[in-house]
Design goal:
Number of helices: 14
CATH class of the largest domain: Alpha Beta
Distance between the termini: 33 Å
Number of strands: 12
Shape: globular
CATH architecture of the largest domain: 3-Layer(aba) Sandwich
CATH superfamily of the largest domain: Type I PLP-dependent aspartate aminotransferase-like (Major domain)
Order of helices and strands: HHEHHEHEHEHEHEEEHHHEHEEEHH
Bound molecules: pyridoxal-5'-phosphate
Helix content: 25-40%
Number of domains: 2
Largest sheet: 7 strands, mixed
CATH topology of the largest domain: Aspartate Aminotransferase, domain 2
Structural class: alpha/beta
Radius of gyration: 21 Å
Length: 404
């Protein structure tokens, strides 16, 4: 038998996708599966993007520059000016989505056995990215009981060891929807400077900010140039998840040199997608305002529906488009699977992401799930009908029986 490495076999299974075969099987049985498992909004890209896409080199598609096309890097730097952030094109490394930026960043700043401090719950794929880089996650627990509060900087400081290389956060946070207030972000920046660490902030959701909440990019702290890494992406902001264009942004020249070496290994980011990303980053603010308005309605609908479900706890998200909820169940893995294998309501079911994958601490998230409100209101309503009905009928003893 050919051998598969232990590393390969143990790669962390993404909670958003691991039950897709069950979803496919449900669809094959004629069930309409409503996908709230993954953060892929159903909006279109800004008008005219496809029309404006020009490829002047006829059918010749060469490799590009490893760091990304200069025009895209310059356009990205210009885009940041609307947040009053001054970065140069050289500070922006184009990557194949934020996912690649995160992997490259971890490989560049940490050696196997080093540590990253990450408040949990966190974006589930951080587990896999850290695993591949041999980085141990040191989780800072936060709880739904008090609304997943952002841990005070003394907690971050207490977790620092000789092996700590970075503090990793997503802001706005996936999955809790929390936003780091400016002062707390500033304290983390100070901590990074004091202990000579990187503060790595994943800002994929920077434009998804509700009501009166304010977002501050870590790049605004220019006095911490050497310590800040921002991870960015066009995926969510421009409804272009499949384009696979992201960025790693830093003013630390030594880090950028290492990232350049890493990026040369994969030769270049996708060339055609980069041409399109240039157009996306030049989109008028009105595009984004429209998307946010629609998300504001979707969020209101979700909050209204969820608060009517008995025994369900959640907190209103301040940003992004997820709700991390506690359900009256024992095993969110079992429940999420059961929704696809054994349940339907009026020919429909809902797919959600079980909460365990959003933690590094074993045993956490067992009765929690992440719901992505990325579909139109009619679909969200139908999904909430399904969830309500499912919770009323789910045999609470199923998971215990399975374990016995
Ligand atoms: C916080 C966060 N970072 C990164 C990513 C990955 O983004 P990309 O599509 O740019 O690889 C996601 C996707 O859901 C995310 O939620």
């Amino acid at each position: 038998m050919t051998r598969i490495s232990e590393r390969g076999k143990s790669i962390f299974a993404s909670p958003f996708r691991k039950y897709l075969p069950y979803a496919d099987a449900a669809k094959a049985r004629g069930i309409d599966v409503i996908h709230l498992n993954i953060g892929q909004p159903d909006f279109l890209m800004p008008d005219g993007i496809l029309d404006s896409f020009k490829w002047s080199a006829s059918s010749f598609v060469p490799y590009g520059i490893a760091e990304g096309e200069n025009e895209l890097r310059a356009t990205w730097a210009e885009y940041y000016q609307k947040f009053n952030i001054e970065v140069t094109a050289e500070n922006v490394m184009v990557t194949t989505g934020a996912s690649e930026a995160l992997q490259m960043a971890l490989l560049a700043i940490a050696d196997p056995g080093d540590e990253a401090i990450v408040p949990e719950p966190f974006y589930a794929n951080y587990n896999g990215f850290c695993q591949i880089a041999g980085v141990n996650i040191v989780p800072l627990p936060t709880s739904i009981d008090d609304g997943f509060p952002i841990p005070p900087s003394v907690d971050f400081e207490a977790a620092i060891t000789e092996r700590t290389r970075c503090i990793l956060i997503s802001n706005p946070n996936n999955p809790t929807g929390k936003i780091f207030p400016q002062e707390q972000l500033r304290q983390l920046v100070r901590l990074a400077v004091k202990h000579d660490l990187f503060l790595m902030v994943d800002e994929a959701y920077s434009e998804f900010v509700y009501q009166t909440y304010d977002f501050y990019s870590a790049l605004t702290f220019a006095d911490a140039d050497q310590h800040v890494i921002v991870i960015d992406s066009v995926s969510k902001r421009f409804n272009a998840c499949g384009l696979r264009v992201g960025a790693l942004v830093s003013r630390n020249a030594a880090l950028l040199d290492s990232i350049t070496n890493l990026s040369r290994l994969r030769l270049s980011p996708p060339m055609l997608a980069q041409r399109m990303a240039i157009q996306l980053l030049k989109s008028p603010g009105s595009y984004y305002a429209g998307v946010l308005e629609e998300f504001t309605h979707r969020r209101a609908l979700m909050l209204d529906r969820l608060k009517k479900i008995d025994g369900l706890d959640f907190h209103a998200p301040e940003g992004a488009f997820y709700i991390f909820a506690r359900l009256p169940i024992e095993d969110s893995e079992d429940f999420s699977r059961w929704l696809l294998t054994d349940f339907s309501h009026q020919g429909q079911t809902v797919m959600i992401a079980p909460g365990t994958g959003f933690y590094a601490s074993p045993g956490q998230g067992l009765n929690e799930v992440r719901i992505a409100y990325v579909l139109e209101e009619k679909r969200l309503s139908a999904a909430m009908d399904c969830l309500e009905q499912a919770l009323a009928t789910y045999p609470k003893t199923v998971s215990a029986a399975l374990k016995a």
